[in-house]
Write a structure and sequence with these properties.
Number of strands: 4
Shape: flat
Strand content: 5-15%
Largest sheet: 2 strands, antiparallel
Distance between the termini: 114 Å
Radius of gyration: 42 Å
Order of helices and strands: HHEEHHHHHHEE
Number of helices: 8
Strand order of the largest sheet: 1-2
Oligomer: single chain
């Protein structure tokens, strides 16, 4: 097929375009920071300068505008919106009362009452759950109160203290005669070993200790003998092992006691906070109701304000 002039020109232009792309071109690189000024960072280009310049002029214009407003400010200027706002952290914030009115106007008074009632039901439910949890913890933590083995080395007992961590409990044992009282043996009375005599909880009996691993837990039985009817004294190695186990056990119990009482204190504080929240919600519902009322006492110590309503004769 014979090529025309137009076809030849189109073919040659396409060929030259592809060849032009195949030839390696010079890579134009941006000028870098000189080595002597490398400690100053990257070399600033014009686009970087424009960003910095625009930001600088924007700040200058803002300061100039503020100075102009301050110079033209009217000291007697007043708007009614100022009654519903206050300065907080250098910014104007709307008061809670104004926010509440705006919310009522936005979604309606009936919807706000429903939301408040749901919040009150939730707070009451959580308060009841936490109160029951505190009661269960108090019932279970009475066993960790006054054992010297579970107290820290710097703890001193105080019978007049109201803190459950500092108050020491008592266990009174009645005997028939004065002679038995003078010769009273705690370990023999409770049927346990002398190492457990000072405990007020988890005081295992000798029969239980014998059943647990045939007395392999480091404690010895007072009735253990050497096979000839004579009592076998514990070895020095066994005594050291007993002392070490006693210290480890006391340390673990002390740690558990501190953690349990810290949780009890936190939950007790949460119960009090829930009660204050419930009181605030109840007060808000009362204030939102109809009728003339007068505040006689402001909110203090986390408790809501006190209102007195005008007496209304019942029909």
């Amino acid at each position: 097929k014979q090529l025309t002039a137009d076809t030849y020109l189109l073919f040659s232009s396409n060929t030259m375009s592809s060849l032009r792309n195949a030839v390696k071109r010079i890579t134009h690189k941006e000028r870098s920071q000189p080595q002597k000024r490398a400690h100053l960072g990257l070399l600033e280009k014009k686009k970087d300068y424009k960003k910095r310049s625009n930001d600088h002029h924007r700040k200058e214009d803002a300061i100039t505008n503020l100075r102009r407003k301050a110079s033209q400010r009217n000291p007697d200027e007043f708007y009614f919106a100022m009654n519903n706002a206050q300065m907080k952290d250098g910014k104007h914030r709307r008061l809670e009362e104004a926010e509440r009115k705006a919310r009522i106007n936005e979604i309606g008074a009936d919807a706000v009452k429903i939301m408040k009632s749901q919040d009150l039901s939730y707070v009451r439910m959580q308060s009841l759950k936490d109160q029951k949890k505190v009661e269960r913890m108090q019932a279970s933590l009475q066993y960790l109160g006054d054992n010297p083995a579970t107290m820290d080395s710097d703890d001193d007992f105080d019978s007049s203290s109201t803190d459950p961590k500092r108050k020491r409990g008592k266990h009174t044992v009645f005997v028939n005669s004065k002679e038995k009282a003078e010769n009273f043996d705690v370990a023999e009375h409770f049927g346990t070993i002398p190492q457990f005599a000072g405990r007020s909880f988890n005081r295992l009996r000798k029969e239980t200790l014998l059943k647990i691993g045939n007395n392999d837990d480091g404690y010895y039985d007072d009735d253990e003998d050497d096979g000839f009817g004579k009592k076998k004294p514990p070895s020095e190695k066994r005594l050291k092992k007993e002392e070490r186990m006693k210290k480890n056990h006391a340390r673990a119990l002390s740690k558990a006691r501190s953690k349990a009482y810290a949780e009890l204190e936190a939950r007790t504080k949460r119960v009090q906070d829930m009660k204050n929240t419930e009181a605030h919600l109840v007060t808000e519902n009362i204030v939102a109701s109809k009728g003339r009322k007068r505040k006689i006492k402001g909110a203090e110590d986390g408790k809501p304000a006190v209102y007195v309503f005008r007496r209304k004769r019942a029909r």
